[in-house]
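Why does residue order matter? Because the sequence determines the fold. Keep that principle in mind as you read this record.
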Amino acid sequence: MTATPSRPLLLRRRRRALGALAALAACGSGLARAAGWPQRPINLVVPFAAGGGTDTVARLIGQKLQAALGGTVVIDNKPGANGLIAARAVLQPPADGHMLMFGSNSTHVIAALASKQLVAPGKSMQEAFTIVSVMANAPLVLAVRADSPARDLRAFLQQAKTGKLSYGSFGAGSSAHVMGEVLAESAGVELLHVPYKGSSPAVTDLMGGQVDAVFLTVAAVEAMVTAGSVRPLAVTGLRRVRSLPAVPTFEELGVRDMGNAGWFAVFAPAGTPEPVVTRLATALQAIAGDAEVQARMVALGLEPVVSTPAQALQTWRRSLASAAPVVKKANIVF
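Structure:
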């Protein structure tokens, strides 16, 4: 004789069945949304002003993404507050893949660690966003004037041990500022950080002798390196930069913790349907592998990256872990 299931057991089974049906329905709904996505123009929000390096790369990606998805991609520049203004604009509901952010380690690592403000009620940057794909690494180069007595990095650091040297960057709390702090800590020297509102004034003061060195993007100094007016000493990252193949990395020269170069990535609000994220990631991977895109990125001093969401998340987490103690020790606060 078969025992009749108890009422509590029947209720539990019913709840499990209803849960499974709900999950199946949600999956089907997500797939349907991905199949029909985008239903309207996609806004790719850039946290810096039009015409800058970040904007240039975002427009390149946006143009290719528009062709890949068969929809309109609008570049929306929202500078200010170290990326907070742009991030809050992207996080306006619904999280359906029509609002994306072209962020970087500056906005989603350094600013995320240094800002006292939450990007959304009860949420940090890491909780509010999903990283879809890292598109490019953005190496930084330490450079001096051509007439500097520092012929190489070893000489520069030796000089720094006998007297404080200064370096200019494109802003307080920027990736260049953080990497300068890492260099000083790793090499056991003291370096004076001089922040500027962009790369151009930093270079102007380097040439005028107001600062001893600059820590800038490759694109900011590449033309002067070619002209012979600036001498590059080393670049961040694990590999040499293709546009400056003769310049060694800090890691090659024995300086630890300088392999974590800056990067650019596409972010979506947390909660964006997984099928939409998957379709977007697939399109971005194809774009990053496109020969024309890679050539243009290299010309901008960047290193193209093809990454899945899982690989991009690893990059983000590594960057947060390595930057956190530096930001705290240097007391970088926004």
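The two ends are 72 Å apart (CA to CA).
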